[in-house]
Prior knowledge:
2 copies of one chain form a homodimer. The first copy, chain A, is α/β, with parallel strands linked by helices.
Amino acid sequence: MSSEGSSIMDRVEVLYFDVFGTVVDYVDTVTKALRWEIANTAIADASVLQALQQDYDWRYFTLMWRQQYKLETKRLADIGNPDKVTVDQMHMNALNRLIADLPLAPGKESSRAVAHHATKAVSKALDQAWTQDVRERLNFTWHLLEPWADSVAGLQALKAHFKLGTLTNGNLNLMVDMAKHANLAWDFVLTADMMGSFKPDPLMYRKAMQLFDIQLEADAHKACMVAAHLYDLEAAKACGMTTVFISSRPTEDQLPAEGKPGYVDLVVADLLELAQFIR
Amino acid sequence: MSSEGSSIMDRVEVLYFDVFGTVVDYVDTVTKALRWEIANTAIADASVLQALQQDYDWRYFTLMWRQQYKLETKRLADIGNPDKVTVDQMHMNALNRLIADLPLAPGKESSRAVAHHATKAVSKALDQAWTQDVRERLNFTWHLLEPWADSVAGLQALKAHFKLGTLTNGNLNLMVDMAKHANLAWDFVLTADMMGSFKPDPLMYRKAMQLFDIQLEADAHKACMVAAHLYDLEAAKACGMTTVFISSRPTEDQLPAEGKPGYVDLVVADLLELAQFIR
């Protein structure tokens, strides 16, 4: 244990967690759901069905689904989300777009196999086979993401010492479903639809601090953002918050080759390592 | 068990709880804190000190403290809380006013004993003795209120079946402290400072439903307000919500002599009785 890590955490009172990727593993959960769904899909053309069931790279589909959401929250953070679109709606819009134009992992055998069947025809068959019911079931997978191995115990250990909750671009209904499913012991749930914007809009971080009576000038270090995404921590630090980077999530940001950026106060592998800095 | 009660609860998905008085007992907790504080207060004039320590009715002081808060939230709900005053600040303002002008329980021996010492002089002595530190400690008592005997087990039982949280005029920081202290198993915490108004402003109930994707016209019955205050249930029913009155709280509203008002769907003694309607 570095005593520096403990010194940093000593001054913290409230922990705000990024959720998707940081606390739960969307890649594995969503990819499994897509594979289960396609295994139970009936399509008359056997070669198209085989391409979708055996050759197609559904993990890549998941990564593209996530990327579409990221681009959309970024766009809406810039313009203030005038139509009050929730993450649930964004996910559904993105799912519809991806089905209509099936994304192909670059340079992979699996993609070439699908391409061989003419992607447009495969997309069209899928578009017809996956009804609104199927799409809603798939979209709901984002409510039931599985935690990383350290998340449940890590949050429990941290909860005994800090006030802790989410500061996420997800919506409240989704976060509550997820917390019940994955047993995440939040003290509070702050979400984009409550706060009226999306990270990295500074409004999100400032409002989160104000709600805990943390003075933005004098006391912002009492608020700590925990994330596996560097853009999130950079924005939190610009608002004066303490910042912790979770480095062990294979699907999220990795530390740059030149090492820890200046806006990151502390790097830990996972939530259990973070809990070890409590003293 | 009435099957009518189960029928009513069958259609509910999200439970929104009033907190002060409904889930926690502010009268007992706050009165004890005031008595502890005055027992540890030094005042040179022995007869004034005795009046405050032995004769004065601190339970009545607590009831008046609560009443001031109620009047203030009502006033701010009407004008939209332009200065973003939190319940913490309201409580402190009210405490200062009550110390400066000590309220006397009408017609009680204890009050006459204080009056005998000239209330103004007693107030003045207390005002000098209770420093800012003492007042902040007393004000923080509202963060540490004790649950009613059925509350913790009742919420746990209900949590297994419903999404459940607060819809309170309290502020977030206060509610999180209280939940950690009293072991209240909320899935979410919705508070006046998050929502930008106070109950019974319809905005509070509507926003609470929207955050769970409950359509205000078609599906409002899926949202259920639980309270020991009739004004709260009347306002919730006007927004279409299902309403449950908790009838066993001695310090809160009692059913009118003419029986259950039309805007109340279900009357239960406490949260454990409510949990028995799950089927």
